[in-house]
């Protein structure tokens, strides 16, 4: 038989389908066709475990930390927000 409608789908699409069923709305065929197409697209999205995503994000951050201005600071010459110098002639 078929899989449950909520397996591998976005909660928004599932809640839309659930609302249509609950309210017993006479949804148009085109609306239901769009919903089915959206569910098919979402079911085809490759998913990874949160632990894997977190590990990859941590690795990316560590690899690019040397280029992050908030961590290493901005060189004085290229800092657009540095304090203006006073005039020495006064």
TrEMBL record:
Alphabetical list of CDD domains matching this protein: GGL (cd00068)
InterPro entries hit by this protein: G-protein_gamma, G-protein_gamma-like_dom, GGL_sf
Ranges of residues in domain G protein gamma: 25-90
Keywords assigned by UniProt, alphabetized: Cell membrane, Lipoprotein, Membrane, Methylation, Prenylation, Transducer
Membrane-protein topology: Lipid-anchor
PROSITE patterns referenced in this protein's UniProt entry, alphabetically: G_PROTEIN_GAMMA
Main location: membrane
One GO term of the biological process aspect: G protein-coupled receptor signaling pathway
GO CC terms: heterotrimeric G-protein complex
SUPFAM superfamilies listed in its UniProt record: Transducin (heterotrimeric G protein), gamma chain
GO MF term set: G-protein beta-subunit binding
Pfam families per the UniProt record, alphabetical: G-gamma
Cellular compartments annotated: Cell membrane
Domain of life: Eukaryota
Keyword Cytoplasm found: no
Matching Gene3D superfamilies: Transducin (heterotrimeric G protein), gamma chain
PANTHER family reported in the protein's UniProt record: GUANINE NUCLEOTIDE-BINDING PROTEIN GAMMA SUBUNIT
Family under the similarity heading: Belongs to the G protein gamma family.
Function: Guanine nucleotide-binding proteins (G proteins) are involved as a modulator or transducer in various transmembrane signaling systems. The beta and gamma chains are required for the GTPase activity, for replacement of GDP by GTP, and for G protein-effector interaction.
Subunit annotation: G proteins are composed of 3 units; alpha, beta and gamma.
Protein name: Guanine nucleotide-binding protein subunit gamma
Native species: Neophocaena asiaeorientalis asiaeorientalis
Name of the gene encoding the protein in the UniProt record: GNG10
């Amino acid at each position: 038989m078929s899989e449950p409608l909520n397996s591998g789908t976005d909660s928004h699409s599932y809640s839309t389908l659930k609302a249509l069923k609950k309210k017993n709305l006479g949804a148009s065929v085109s609306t239901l066709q769009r919903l089915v197409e959206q569910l098919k697209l979402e079911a085809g999205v490759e998913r990874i475990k949160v632990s894997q995503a977190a590990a990859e994000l941590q690795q990316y951050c560590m690899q690019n930390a040397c280029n992050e201005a908030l961590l290493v600071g901005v060189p004085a010459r290229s800092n657009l927000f540095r304090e203006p110098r006073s005039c020495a002639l006064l």
